[in-house]
Task: structure prediction
Amino acid sequence: MEWRLDDDRPIWQQLTQQLTRRIITGGYPPGSRLPPVRELAAQAGVNPNTMQRALAQLEQEGLARADRTAGRLVTQDTEVLERVRRAEARTVIRQYLDAMAALGYNPDRAAALLREEEVK
Result:
């Protein structure tokens, strides 16, 4: 699995976002076990404490839970998954609309262009 990290914001936040995306897109299916902290940290090339902070954030958001015997598990709560998926979608939509506004398009015209591309 590929990790993309840059200097624009804290690493733990980037890790949290990437893990969140993997969860809501099924990379880590509901109820599945997440890899251990050290394994994820080694894959991402980060300090285990940084990865631990990202995983703790996932727990706070309800996307994962700690189980003493099984490690961390992805939530099976479909409402939580859908809420987070919609929030991510809104972020993508906002980025699209902001980029289109920078090109001089209002939201209605940006939506029309999107529909045109969908038809192709």
